[in-house]
């Protein structure tokens, strides 16, 4: 994302914070409505381009967005949307991606307000693992030729009554986006939820299941390294033979047997 879009995103986030401040219950509505706005923009290319056209004054673009969506969404959503479209974006896609992010953050704020953020974070992580471990499901949810409505229906059948409503909404929206892989996209949402609690996420692949004591020791070690609270998510991967692989952001710590064998192979080559 270029500088112009980064600045535009920052200002749009400020508008979201202002819209949600001191208003009980507005976060969930705002998040869902921002997703609905994105769905309209995805379907209507001409409107999408018009709202991000930097050759048109920002005030004119904001007025257009209010004419189109005013009365159909809440005042809080209109405030966020008009602020976002009034900014100068480097690419049209940056505007749409930011509206998606703002919708996600609003829903996670709602989960935090209701004390359910931990549950949502864990469910998103577990769903990401289920998708990543099931190639047929991954293909069905990421197939660009498959209608978005069919993907949402599939997610609803799998998750309704089994996860938090916010988890379901976030998952349904994720599968409608043009992402290369659904599993990693769900992981990013889980990380976003952790960030709201001022925590970082350690994605751990272990040859065997870790005991609670082992998880606690690992989390404590990572806290010392990163000087932050750490959420540890573990996926069992017998192909590692023994040990584990830890990923925190772009950092990877490979203590697995297969990793040691690979390093030895490179040294001998």
TrEMBL record:
It is a peripheral membrane protein. Keywords: ATP synthesis, Cell membrane, CF(1), Hydrogen ion transport, Ion transport, Membrane, Transport. InterPro entries: ATP_synth_OSCP/delta_N_sf (IPR026015), ATPase_OSCP/d_CS (IPR020781), ATPase_OSCP/dsu (IPR000711). GO terms for cellular component: plasma membrane; proton-transporting ATP synthase complex. GO terms for molecular function: proton-transporting ATP synthase activity, rotational mechanism. Its main location: membrane. It comes from the Bacteria. It holds the Pfam family OSCP. It is found in: Cell membrane; Membrane. Transmembrane segments: none annotated. Gene3D superfamilies: N-terminal domain of the delta subunit of the F1F0-ATP synthase. PANTHER family: ATP SYNTHASE DELTA CHAIN (PTHR11910). This protein is part of the stalk that links CF(0) to CF(1). It either transmits conformational changes from CF(0) to CF(1) or is implicated in proton conduction. F(1)F(0) ATP synthase produces ATP from ADP in the presence of a proton or sodium gradient. F-type ATPases consist of two structural domains, F(1) containing the extramembraneous catalytic core and F(0) containing the membrane proton channel, linked together by a central stalk and a peripheral stalk. During catalysis, ATP synthesis in the catalytic domain of F(1) is coupled via a rotary mechanism of the central stalk subunits to proton translocation. Belongs to the ATPase delta chain family. This is ATP synthase subunit delta. It comes from Nocardia bovistercoris. The gene is atpH.
């Amino acid at each position: 994302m270029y500088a112009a879009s980064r600045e535009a995103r920052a200002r749009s986030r400020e508008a979201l914070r202002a819209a949600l401040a001191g208003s009980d219950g507005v976060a969930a509505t705002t998040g869902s409505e921002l997703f609905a706005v994105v769905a309209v923009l995805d379907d209507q290319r001409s409107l999408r381009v018009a709202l991000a056209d930097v050759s048109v004054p920002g005030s004119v673009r904001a007025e257009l967005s209010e004419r189109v969506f005013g009365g159909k969404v809440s005042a809080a959503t209109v405030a966020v949307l008009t602020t976002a479209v009034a900014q100068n974006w480097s690419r049209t896609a940056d505007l749409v991606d930011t509206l998606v992010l703002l919708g996600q953050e609003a829903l996670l704020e709602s989960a935090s307000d209701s004390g359910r953020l931990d549950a949502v974070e864990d469910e998103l992580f577990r769903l990401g693992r289920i998708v990543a471990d099931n190639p047929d499901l991954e293909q069905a949810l990421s197939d660009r030729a498959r209608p978005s409505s069919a993907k949402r229906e599939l997610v609803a059948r799998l998750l309704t009554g089994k996860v938090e409503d916010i988890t379901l909404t976030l998952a349904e929206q994720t599968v409608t986006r043009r992402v290369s892989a659904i599993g990693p996209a769900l992981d990013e949402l889980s990380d976003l939820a952790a960030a709201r609690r001022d925590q970082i996420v350690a994605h751990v692949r272990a040859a065997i299941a870790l005991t609670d004591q082992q998880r606690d020791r690992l989390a404590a070690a990572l806290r010392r390294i990163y000087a932050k609270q750490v959420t540890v998510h573990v996926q069992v991967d017998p192909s590692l033979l023994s040990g584990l692989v830890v990923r925190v952001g772009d950092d990877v710590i490979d203590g697995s047997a297969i990793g040691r064998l690979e390093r030895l192979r490179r040294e001998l080559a």
